[in-house]
Amino acid sequence: MSIRKWMPLLCAMAVGLTISLPAYAYLDPGTGSSLLQGLFAGVAGVLAVLKLYWQRIKDFFSVKKNPGRDEKNTKE
Amino acid sequence: MKKTQRNNASFRDPNGYVYQIEDRIYRTVMPVAQNEFDFVRSTGLITKLIAEKKLLPETLIESHLLKDISPDIKCVLEHPKLPFISYPYEWTFSALKSAALLHIDIHLQALEHGVTLSDASAFNIQFQGSKPVFIDHLSFRKYQEGEIWNGHRQFCEQFLNPLLLQSYCHMPYNVWYRSALEGISADQLVPLLPFYRKCFPNIFLHVVMQSSLQKTSTKQAVKTIKKIHLPLSAFKKLLSSLRRWIEKLQLNNNEKSSWQDYSSDYLPLPKKIAFVKEFIETTRPRLLWDMGCNTGFYSKLALQTGAKKVIGFDADQGAVEKAFSMAVQEQLNFLPLLMDLANPSPDQGWQNAERMGMMTRAPADALLALAVTHHLAITRNIPLSSIIDCLLNLAPEGLIEFVPKHDPQLQRLLSLRKDIFEDYSEEIFLNAIQQKATIVKKEIVSDSERLMVWYKRDKNNANLD
């Protein structure tokens, strides 16, 4: 009975182990290279990378807005 | 008890290590790598690559030889010993280009067999004559569908970017590469490229985009990277498109290099040729170093007369490039390298022992130092006796040419300078040789009284390593 309790966890672990990336080699592939290859990986890859990049663009614009807000606060 | 020495450059990859016992080279296959090793060999890829001379031969041998190193080792390979090791920062443009193309060709061939390469280090390639050959037998492993090219960044840093630096920025990579052993990164190259170049798709992707995407924080990027599934067809296209691009790259050195002036002024001297022939026919060196080889005229002559293998050294990029092209076209066992004799490659890398300096790779069996000592003495202000002492250490016998001050070539070097070289004379030259060696033969070989000397180190000084 105690084994049945642990079965879901054991199954999840088994699945996790089979689909997790094995330790390939001593070499660091690099974030830039890995993401770049995402762009070659088809539509899903392009969308995934763009989503990541979009966050950077959004961050860039939100920083620009902040100085304006601060000025307003100090005036008051 | 035979002395076992682990290769100083073999420590990063835990799959196996290279050892030297006396004059033989062995590679251990560690237990962690056994499965991959067996899989790769079962595909027939290794046998094929060796037959096509793209991969250095390997022989499986009894592992008891290295049992003292590690009792777990099940598998040991033996490889033929390469008579000379050279490094990517010493290779001329066309040599690095041919190494890059070989790497890609091997990777494409591997993928046909369900195998991929773990890394893409330029130091995994050596030259046999002017032909590149792959030497990292444990870099091959099973390809997993969907995996990205792990070696792409390293390939760009160690093969592509140096070639681009020369081809698009007209800047030789050798000096930079010698210091930065990991190569030239994309973010270092981006600001150097002309703006219009960055708009071309290949550069935009592999240099500009790779650099830009590298700035994404790893924490954010990891989730995205883990989702990426690169189909095999896309992987092959990536390799093929890089190959097409690299094949088209040219040296693009607009400057007229000094060798071109030199070769038009200088005609091969019959007496000099005869002297070199006599020397080579008598000594028949297995490994000859040609110091100041220029376009390789005497290197080729030596090979035709009985030398087995020649390594050439010259500081002039145009000359070395021309020498290499000749070696490739005529399939000579000749590798010309870019080397400034006044500042040769040092011992460097980890513990200053990972990559050997030029002096550490000495001695050769024989030496040619033709029309080179006056350049070092006059242009680089190195005392003549010191130059001779250094040359004598490089090989137990050889030919050295003395160029007198009144020779037109030397006069050109002095044309804008005051003659401060009181210690530059034939007498001092001969004395310096006789400090450590015997003069076997000497002869005047030109109208300007150039003197060729055949030296042989004395028995006491025979092993000056």
Mean pLDDT of chain B: 93
Q: Cα distance, first to last residue of chain A? A: 68 Å
What share of the residues of chain B lie within helices? 40-55%
What is the approximate shape of chain A?
A: extended
**Strand order across the largest sheet of chain B:** 12-11-10-13-14-16-15
Largest sheet of chain B: 7 strands, mixed
Amount of beta strand of chain B: 15-25%
Tally of helical segments of chain A? 3
Shape verdict of chain B: globular
Can you give the mean pLDDT of chain A?
Answer: 67
The Cα radius of gyration of chain B reads 25 Å
Computed structural class of chain A: mainly alpha
| Helix and strand element order of chain A | HHH
Main beta sheet of chain A: none
Total strands of chain A: 0
Q: What is the largest interface, and how many residues per chain?
A: A-B, 30 and 41 residues
Poorly predicted regions of chain B are none
Verbal overview:
The complex is a heterodimer of chains A (76) and B (465). In chain A, 79% of the residues lie in helices and 0% in strands. Chain A contains 3 helices and no strands. The longest helix of chain A is centred in the C-terminal third of the chain and has 33 residues, at 43-75. Mean pLDDT of chain A is 67; it is low at 11-23 and 68-76. Chain B has 465 residues and is an alpha/beta fold. Chain B has 19 helices and 16 strands. Chain B has helices at 34-42, 45-51, 93-112, 152-169, 174-179, 186-189, 195-198, 201-214, 218-227, 232-248, 258-265, 270-283, 297-305, 317-329, 358-361, 373-379, 384-394, 408-413, 426-436, and strands spanning 4-6, 18-21, 24-29, 59-61, 75-79, 115-117, 125-128, 131-134, 140-142, 287-291, 309-314, 334-338, 366-369, 397-402, 437-444, 451-457. In chain B, the strands form 4 sheets. A 7-stranded mixed beta sheet of chain B has the order 12-11-10-13-14-16-15, with helices on both faces. In chain B, strands 1-2-3-5-4 form a 5-stranded antiparallel beta sheet, with no helix packed on it. A two-stranded antiparallel ribbon of chain B has the order 6-9. Chain B starts with a strand and ends in an 8-residue tail after the last strand.
